[in-house]
Please model this.
Amino acid sequence: MTLFRQAMMALCLLIALAPEARAATPAPLSQADQAVVRKVEAYLNGIRTLSARFMQVAPDGSYAEGMAYISRPGLLRLDYDPPVPIDVYADGRMLIYYDQELKQASYLALEESPAGVLISPDIRLIGGQLIVTKVERDGGVVKIGMVQAKDSTSGEITLIFTQQPFELRQWKVKDAQGGVTSVSLFETRSGVRLDPALFDFVPPDAAPSLRQ
Model:
């Protein structure tokens, strides 16, 4: 289960920092590239609520499925189908990874993770905390790669959209060790009513906490 749990951490975007942080250099963006980035910003900022089935493929080829829920700004929950003993929450301030078997919760501030690109109040891909490293358009698909502005070595997230209709269909996380975890969305529903209690994380009293 060790590799699988590491993949879960990558999915949560809890990317281990490399020994020495290095500032990122923005990719040169053409006017067409900038137009695509603005379109992505508008799409993500237009999401209020979203639910979807997801399939995750880990670097070792193992996979898991579950349900993803987003309520912007700030809230996210990932429910893995059994037998995966993982819960993931974002409560507006922290990204929380809870291992049911180990009864252990790990925390990461949202502003320290690219996870904020999906649930921050005002998503800015140019001039914000993330730096666009690539924009690719091919066969009706748009791919946008991003790293943290303050530390390009901590990992990269690539968002993948279909153009007709323009929808987020997949993201890939490349961690500091080069492992890639991909998450594909399907049966996506936007604008759905979500119970606020979905996003409440109340760990057992005995659960140890690892804050980063």
About this structure: Confidence is low (pLDDT under 50) at residues 13-21.
